[in-house]
């Protein structure tokens, strides 16, 4: 499920909204996610200060900033990976990746309510990089890396 262009994994999807911690930046998502990832790589753990970071991917033109676009700042965390944060509160909201220019990664934890995806769409990535003191105990698929193909 997910990740296939033209596939509609959620025909009843309704647009969702989200915002940063302070409310200076708000956004709207008008298409269902292609995938939902729980990333365990050290870079994502450090950017979020958590055991893993959760991301949703949607068509870039369907994830729009509705408030505070001028309050976003970008940090290039690695070659071709552009993380966008609120300048005021530091909340990470989006990632644009050069290898997938038609997709935008957004943080489902910043959505107002449930992101609207089925649990089966979720998967863990970079599981060999997870913190050693955390055990993944769910039945979601587990991948050594992220493969956008």
Structural features:
149 residues, Metal Binding Protein, Guanine Nucleotide Exchange Factor, Chain A, seven-stranded mixed sheet, three-stranded antiparallel sheet, 10 strands, globular, disordered N terminus
Produce a short descriptive summary.
The chain is 5% helix and 35% strand.
Radius of gyration over C-alpha positions, nearest whole angstrom: 15 Å
Major pleated sheet:
7 strands, mixed
| Architecture per CATH nomenclature, i.e. the level-2 architecture of one domain | Beta Complex
Unreliable runs, pLDDT <50, ≥5 residues?
1-6
**Number of alpha- plus pi-helical segments:** 1
**What's the total count of β strands?**
10
Rounded to the nearest angstrom, the distance between the terminal CA atoms is: 14 Å
Query: For this structure, what is the CATH class of one domain?
Result: Mainly Beta
Strand order of the largest sheet: 6-7-8-9-4-3-10
Helical residue percent?
under 10%
* Series of H and E elements: EEEHEEEEEEE
Shape field: globular
């Amino acid at each position: 499920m997910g990740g296939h262009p033209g596939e509609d994994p959620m025909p009843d999807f309704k647009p969702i909204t989200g915002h940063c911690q302070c409310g200076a930046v708000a956004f709207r998502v008008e298409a269902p996610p292609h995938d939902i990832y729980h990333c365990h790589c050290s870079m994502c753990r450090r950017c979020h200060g958590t055991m893993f970071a959760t991301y949703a991917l949607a068509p870039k033109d369907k994830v729009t900033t509705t408030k505070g676009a001028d309050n976003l700042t970008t940090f290039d965390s690695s070659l071709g990976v552009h993380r966008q944060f609120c300048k005021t509160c530091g909340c990470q909201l989006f990632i644009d990746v050069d290898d997938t220019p038609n997709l935008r990664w957004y943080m489902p934890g910043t959505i107002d309510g449930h992101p609207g995806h089925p649990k089966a769409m979720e998967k863990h990535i970079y599981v060999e990089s997870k913190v050693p003191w955390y055990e993944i105990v769910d039945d979601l698929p587990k991948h050594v890396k992220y493969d956008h193909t």
